[in-house]
Amino acid sequence: MGRFWLVTKVRLYRVVLAAQWRLEAAAIFVILQLCRRLGVDRASALGGRVAAALGPRLGVSRYARAQLAAALPASDAEGREALVGAVWRNLGRYFTEYAHLAEIWPPAVDPQALTRIAIAPEVIDRFVALREDGRPAILFTGHIGNWELLPVGAARFGLDLAVMFRRPNNPYAEKVLLAIRGAAMGELIPAGFQAGLAAARVLEAGGHLGMLVDQHFSRGPA
């Protein structure tokens, strides 16, 4: 009898979780479609305002406050709270800009267009050298600004770049997001057992590998 109830509870949990995932994915899809209608500037501004207003009220923000207090012991509570709000504002902008990944970069290698989006000439020179030198390379950065734009720019301007990423926990949301990523970026390598082999193959073939290296999965000192 006990085994029967255990199996029933597990099955019920899976049904409820799948329903929750589908609802989340549907909400993400609808929000991104609305953001497309707003245009990138209005969508980004709105996402930043909403996230900055709601995010600090969520329970998860207590981890951010604890980490900031540990990392910046000389800071005051007001300053740390401003940083928490800024983090949420950036996340809101990042999410709503997702709907515009495919067109947010200029459509061709145009130095004047790149200048208009505030890319310094020396950065353009380094990019072109990296693209033209014929050698493999590993490019790494962190979750800064809209980090999705880096591989989009690489793909738009001809840099062969494979990007490692962590799969979302929600497989239905993953399909929504990967449909956008796949249309805007190059090769995508999901983190996992086979990721190292896939990354090695990219480098052996003379390609470039992009990685975000600032994320740690434990809670850290809190």
Walk me through the structure:
The chain is α/β, with parallel strands linked by helices and 222 residues long. The chain has helices spanning 2-38, 40-54, 61-71, 77-97, 111-116, 121-132, 149-156, 171-184, 195-204, and strands at 137-141, 161-165, 187-190, 208-212. It has a four-stranded parallel sheet with strand order 1-4-2-3, with helices on both faces. Helix 8 (171-184) links the parallel strand 2 (161-165) and strand 3. It starts with a helix and ends in a 10-residue tail after the last strand.
What brief labels describe this structure?
four-stranded parallel beta sheet, 60% helix, 222 residues, alpha/beta
Number of alpha- plus pi-helical segments: 9
Strand content: 5-15%
For the largest beta-sheet, the strand count, sense and barrel status come to: 4 strands, parallel
* Spatial order of strands in the largest sheet: 1-4-2-3
Strands, total number? 4
Helix/strand-derived category reads: alpha/beta
Shape: globular
Uncertain runs with pLDDT below 50, 5 residues or more? none
Order of helices and strands: HHHHHHEHEHEHE
Termini separation comes to 42 Å
What would you report as the Rg, rounded to the nearest angstrom? 20 Å
Please estimate the helix content.
55-70%
> What is the typical, i.e. mean, pLDDT?
84
